[in-house]
């Protein structure tokens, strides 16, 4: 790796860690998830010594699967669909989110455009950085109407931590940077 790439990676990682340390937001806009998926952006200048293209693809596939299941969970107000794709900690967060929706008399139709990048990868752990465009919107919890709506179009920046458990990648936890 040449010096310029190394410095750029170090600065980028430092900025990411600083953003993660600052925690989440008290913003009251609807949480986000997936429905629209774009292909992952590759970073050809940074290679991970233990990562293989196949492993990275597995991580991205597991990450997007988590989002598909999350979208189903918040639309149907049932966190149990995420079992096997998320840790107990992550399941608890989604369960609390769903209880908030129930109390408000709404469900959430997730419409997210993902741009995930694997930024760290070992044989058993992975970190995915995703700068997403959120167009999710609230719907009736019984009828799921309306089928289409206008979201905010806001950009969300999240970091997801995955772990390989019993041969399958699952989301352990996530951090919202904005």
Number of strands: 8
- Output mean pLDDT: 80
The structural class is alpha+beta
Shape: globular
**How would a textbook summarize the main sheet?**
6 strands, mixed
CATH architecture tag: Roll
In N-to-C order, the SSE pattern is HEHHEEEEEEE
What level of helicity do the residues show?
Answer: 25-40%
Compute the number of helices: 3
CATH fold node name:
Nuclear Transport Factor 2, Chain: A
Number of domains: 1
Distance between the termini: 31 Å
Q: Report the β-strand fraction as a percent range.
A: 25-35%
Q: Give the C-level CATH assignment.
A: Alpha Beta
- Evaluate the radius of gyration: 17 Å
Short structural summary:
This protein is of the alpha+beta class. It is built from 3 helices and 8 strands; from the N terminus they run H-E-H-H-E-E-E-E-E-E-E. The strands form 2 sheets. Strands 1, 3, 4, 5, 7 and 8 form a 6-stranded mixed sheet that branches. Strands 2-6 form a two-stranded antiparallel sheet.
What does this protein look like?
With 178 residues, the protein is α+β, with helices and mostly antiparallel strands. The protein has one domain (3-176): Nuclear Transport Factor 2, Chain: A, CATH 3.10.450. The chain has 3 helices and 8 strands; from the N terminus they run H-E-H-H-E-E-E-E-E-E-E. The chain has helices at 3-21, 53-76, 88-104; strands at 36-37, 107-109, 112-114, 116-121, 125-134, 137-139, 154-165, 168-176. Strands 1, 3, 4, 5, 7 and 8 form a 6-stranded mixed sheet that branches. It has a two-stranded antiparallel sheet with strand order 2-6. Residues 1-49 have low confidence and may be disordered.
